[in-house]
Amino acid sequence: DIVMTQSPDSLAVSLGERATINCKSSQSILYSLKNKNCLAWFQQKRGQPPKLLINWSSTRESGVPDRFSGSGSGTDFTLTISSLQAEDVAVYYCQQYCRIPYTFGQGTKLEIK
Amino acid sequence: QEQLVQSGDEVKKPGASVKVSCKASGYTFTSYDLNWVRQATGQGPEWMGWVSPKSGNTGYAQKFQGRVTMTRDTSVGTVYMELSSLTSEDTAVYYCVRRGERAHDIWGQGTMVIVSS
Asked: Is A99 on the interface with B (CB under 8 A)?
C-alpha cells in the first residue's frame, strides 16, 4: 500500500499569514496517461464530511477560494493557504487515488494563532 | 444538485452485522463508481472499497475482504455496504463517496456506527 505522510501534525498561523502543509507519498503517484499526479487535498471541519479542495495535485475545485493552492510532483506535495481566514480552521488531509487501496494522510490540524 | 444521502446512525452488538445505504441523486447513477470510506474518531479516513453502479462489480481493501459486501440497486439509485462480524474497532463514521473524474468529489453526510455490548 502507498503510505501518505503529512507534516506537521498541527499548525497555528496568524490571520492573514501563509499556511503550508506537506504531504509525502511512499512511492510515485504519477498517472502516466495524463502525466499528472493523483493527489487530492481535503478540508474537514468538525462534524462534517471531508470536502474536496484540490485534485490532480494542483487543480482547485469549483468554488474553492484562490487562496488555496496545491503544488508538487513525484512524491512530495504541498497545500498552501496564502492568507489564512478564520473559516479555514479545519483538519486537512492529502490522499492518493492512483492505486487501490486509496490512502489518506494522517491529517494536519490547522488553528489560528 | 448532485448528492448522496445515507441511512441513519446504527448501534450494534459485537458479532452483529450492519447494512448502510446511500442514495444518489442529481446525476446519472450508473456514470460513476461509488466508494465507501470510514473514519474513526480522531483518525484519518480509511478507504474500504468500491462498487460499480453500472455493472455491480466490486473491489475491496484487503483488510475488509471476507467481511464486507457492497451492492447496488439501480431501480432506486442506491448502493449498500454491509459489514459483518463487528467489533469495537469498527466503531466509526461510514461515508459513501463518488469516485468522479475529479477524484472523490461528492461525499454522503456520513452514518455513525457504534459497536458496543
From this structure: no
Residue linked to cell 462498487: B51
Q: Do B44 and A104 touch (CB under 8 A)?
A: yes
| CA Rg value for chain B | 13
Terminal Cα-to-Cα distance of chain A (whole angstroms): 36
CB contact under 8 A, A52 and B110: no
For A1-53, what is each residue's pLDDT tens digit? 999 999 999 999 999 999 999 999 999 999 988 899 999 999 999 999 999 99
Distance from CA of B46 to the nearest CA of A (A): 7
CB atoms within 10 A of CB A89: 15
Contact residues on chain B for A51, CB-CB shorter than 8 A: 107
Q: Show the beta-strand stretches assigned E in chain A.
A: 4-7, 10-13, 19-25, 30-31, 36-37, 39-44, 51-55, 59-60, 68-73, 76-81, 90-96, 103-104, 108-112
Residue B56 CA to residue B79 CA, distance in Å, equals 10
Cβ A91 vs Cβ A108: under 8 Å: yes
> In DSSP terms, which residues pair with B34 in a beta bridge?
B51, B98
